[in-house]
Specification:
3 domains, 34 strands, Udp-n-acetylmuramoylalanyl-d-glutamate--2,6- Diaminopimelate Ligase, Chain: A, domain 1, alpha/beta
Length: about 325
């Protein structure tokens, strides 16, 4: 495990606190544990400094001036958040050059069925009575529970956790790096993703789905979730227990979907959205605000120039008030 002093050197940061404090990984402010480095690059996360169990923080220089540094906490202040994350990848990301075992030759695995030409990293573990299709690749440090079924041509990237009785359809990609990019001098630069994917028990994932690993912190699919074919779940999304998601739905980064949600086909959910428990979203809807109460929601409007769309949307939301004002009968 690296020390804070080693991290400060790699990130070109200023260290406040113990040079020898050991860090085992990094995490988001709301979930960081005692020995994890808590990353604070946004003002809204400052409050967690006094609530989290973490004792070590990577914080931007423009934010550290807003707090009084607690004497029992350790801080590394960095000028460039993007560069610091890129440099942290040198310490914390898994080495993909792992030794792979051909599953058909791996005597230590108690598998019910094995397809041809499938491989698993020597550092990964499979539970009992799993079924593995053909051309499957399972990278380093993956943990898969009992009675799981992995379809043909599935890739499960490093660090993924999968519970018992999980089905993953053919062609799905679990824990690939998501759309984490930042624009620098008119060019896009990709940010490393330090998080993983955590799939709980009794989850069913259809064919050709993409579930991205978290940027910092994990993407989580909770117990009993069912996901149709061709669904994209972006980094740091959490899908609540027993929710169902129909085909061609896309859920953008850091959205939190409540329990028992039912999401229709071709729904688009923008980033950082939160939905309540027991929400139903009609097919082809666009969700661009939090859904705070249970119920059925529909958000469909013909495409138009954005300025026109905003004017139309404004008037639609006021139609009921206009009708009342004009003493018109409800339709």
């Amino acid at each position: 495990m690296p020390t804070l002093n080693e991290i400060a050197i790699v990130t070109n940061g200023r260290l406040f606190g113990s040079k020898n404090f050991l860090v085992n990984s990094i995490n988001i402010p709301s979930k960081a544990t005692k020995e994890e480095l808590c990353v604070v690059f946004e003002k809204k996360f400052l409050e967690f400094i006094f609530k989290t169990d973490s004792e070590a923080f990577l914080i931007s220089e423009d934010l550290i001036k807003h707090i009084s540094i607690p004497i029992d906490k350790n801080f590394i202040a960095v000028k460039n958040s993007r560069d610091s994350l890129v440099n942290l990848a040198k310490i914390f990301l898994f080495d993909k050059k792992s030794e792979f075992i051909k599953l058909s030759e791996g005597s230590t695995f108690n598998l019910s069925e094995i397809g041809v030409n499938s491989f698993i990293s020597s550092s990964s573990r499979l539970g009992n009575n799993c079924t593995i299709g053909s051309n499957v690749l399972i990278e380093a440090n993956v943990l898969i529970g009992d009675s799981c079924s992995i379809g043909n041509n599935v890739v499960i990237h490093q660090g993924t956790k999968i519970g018992n009785n999980v089905y993953i359809g053919s062609g799905s990609i679990i824990a690939s790096e998501g759309f984490g990019n930042i624009r620098v001098n008119e060019k896009w630069e990709h940010l490393p993703h330090f998080g993983n994917v955590d799939i709980h028990q009794d989850v069913r994932i259809g064919a050709n789905c993409c579930i991205d690993r978290g940027t910092i912190g994990d993407t989580i699919i909770f117990e009993g979730v069912v996901i149709d074919n061709l669904v994209h779940i972006a980094h740091n999304v959490e899908i609540g227990e027993y929710s169902a998601i129909a085909a061609k739905t896309g859920i953008a980064g850091s959205s939190l979907i409540g329990k028992r949600n039912m999401i229709g086909g071709m729904v688009g959910i923008i980033d950082h959205i939160k939905t309540a428990d027991d929400v139903i979203i009609s097919a082809t809807s666009t969700v661009n605000k939090d859904l705070k109460e249970p119920g059925t929601y529909t958000g469909i409007m013909p495409i138009s120039k954005h300025a026109m769309w905003k004017r139309i949307a404004l008037w639609i939301t006021k139609l009921d008030k206009i009708a009342k004002f004009l003493n018109l009968k409800k339709i």
